[in-house]
Design brief:
Mean pLDDT: 94
Low-confidence stretches: none
Number of strands: 5
Largest sheet: 3 strands, antiparallel
Amino acid sequence: TAAETSATTTVAATDCIALGTTYAGAGTPAVTVKGVAAGSFSVVITNLHASAALDAVLIVNFAVIKSVAA
């Protein structure tokens, strides 16, 4: 498991982050969002495969879904 923090001024603490990945190696990567705050969020990368390590470049794409107070 590894975590990476992304700093971007477009993120508010109440926004939703959608993630997508491109990966063509061994292992089974899963990406989740943790810790959305004003100006940043953390992406956690976990290998779900029991024995095969992640062994290639993992590209993570994200979209910020803006929240609206109703």
